[in-house]
Amino acid sequence: MTLIFFILIPIVVGLWAQMKVKSAYNKYIQVPSRGRITGREAARAVMESAGIYDVEIVACHGTLTDHYDPTNKRLALSEANYRGSSLAALGVAAHEAGHAIQHKQEYAPLNLRMSLVPITGFASQFLPVIMFGGFFFGYGPLTINLGIIVYLILTVFQLVTLPVEFDASKRAKAQLVGLGIVDQDELIGVNKTLDAAAYTYVAAFVSSLGWLLYFLSKR
Question: How far apart are the first and last CA of the chain?
Fold first, then answer.
C-alpha cells in the first residue's frame, strides 16, 4: 500500500503531465501567430525590453529541449521554436527569455536554484545505487538513509524550481501581449502550452516527494 501511494501514484501523475504537455505543444505548434514573428525574434524582443543585450540565442536539437544557461548567458531553443512562429514556439521562447530576465534582476528563487545545481547533480549520481541496490539486495539501513538524503536534496530542488518556472511563464505571457507579439485572443494557445508545461514541474516535485516519504516510511 505504501508503494502504491508514494511511488505509483506520482508515476501516473508524471505520465499524465507528459501527455498534457505533448498534446498542448503538438496542437499549438501547428497554429501560426498573426504577426509571424519567430521564436528567436520573440525571445530577443522580450530580453531587449528588459535591457538585456548580452545573451546569445542559439538553436538546439530535439523537441522541448529549450533552456536558458545562466552560466554562459545562452538561450537555446529547439529548431521548431527557434525558427517557427507558432503560438507554442512564441510561448516557449518568451518563457526562456523570462529566465534571462530573472537572472538579470537576481530573482531570489533562481539564484537559490542555481546554488543547488552542483549538490543536486552530485546527489543524482547515487540514484542508480539506490534503485538497483534496493532491488537486488533489499533496502538496508545504509540504502534507506542514502535514499532519504538524496531525495531530500532532489525534493528541495524541485520545490525551488516551481516558483522559478511559474514566474517565467507569467513574465512571458505579459511580455508577449505587452510588446504586441501576440494579440490578446492568441494568448489562449500560449497559456495552454505553458500551463501544460507547468504540470511537468509539479509532477517532478510530487515524484521526488513521494520517494522521500517512501524512504522515510521504511526507517
Answer: 16
Burial 79-95 (b: 16+ CB within 10 A, else e): ebbbebbbbbbbbbbbb
Q: Please name the residue ranges forming H helices in 77-186.
A: 79-83, 87-104, 108-124, 127-137, 141-178
CA distance 92 to 77: 8
- What pLDDT does residue 129 have? 79
Quick one: cell of 5? 501511494
Q: What pLDDT score was predicted for residue 9? A: 79
186 is catalytic: no
- The torsion angle over the Cα atoms of residues 80, 81, 84 and 87, rounded to 10 degrees, is 120
User: Catalytic pick from 96, 106, 165, 186?
Assistant: 96
pLDDT in tens, 163-174: 999 999 999 999
Query: Number of structural domains, the chain?
Result: 1
Whole-number Å distance between alpha carbons of 192 and 87: 10
Q: Which helix (H) or strand (E) holds 45?
A: helix 39-49
Rg of the chain on CA atoms, in Å: 19
* Per-residue pLDDT at 13 exceeds 90: no
Query: Which residues form the domain of 23?
Result: 2-217
* Distance between CA atoms of residues 110 and 170, nearest Å: 15
Kindly report, residue by residue over 108-164, the tens digit of the pLDDT: 999 999 999 999 999 999 888 787 766 666 677 778 888 999 999 999 999 999 999
